[in-house]
Amino acid sequence: MFRHHHHRGHEAHFGRGTFGGSGFGRDHWRGERGGRGERVFESGDLRFVLLAMIAEKPSHGYELIKAIEEKLSGGYTPSPGVVYPTLTLLEELGYVTVEAQDGGKKLYSITDTGRAFLGENQRVVDGLFARMDEARSRGGRFSPQIMRAMENLKIALKYRLVAGDLTEADVQSIAAAIDAAALAVEKKG
Hints:
Radius of gyration: 20 Å
Order of helices and strands: HHHEEHHHH
Number of helices: 7
CATH topology of the largest domain: Arc Repressor Mutant, subunit A
Number of domains: 2
Number of strands: 2
Structural class: mainly alpha
């Protein structure tokens, strides 16, 4: 399928991914299972997804991350720490070219070799996008507004904890607020 025995060391960059709700935006590429534990990407699948998206339209890494997030209705976002090494591998294999642009951004475009590779693996690519579409259709429970709110809570908590100026009363108050929010969400279901 993906022929590159001299690049074996790169396989570590391809981890595994899941589609589920427990991570709320966390990177699930290291075999963690969330929600129902359904895998969207197996080891190495991201390279096919990225290459197919670049074939449709030359893109920056950030645009690709956002496009995958959108395709999965916000239920999963690959981390830059997974996407950029994969893009580097695609470049090393001659499947994409990189054009430096203003602000240090890189624009990735597919090569003829990359198009040939996609053509040889069209069945795999079609299967991946079908799985993504299926996960998206079942993933209606992932509201972008809820995902945003969860990220806001995570950032606010991190900021307060790093500041280190919490009293015992502050800790109790924050815990009570989170517990109240959890109870309110539970009652909605």
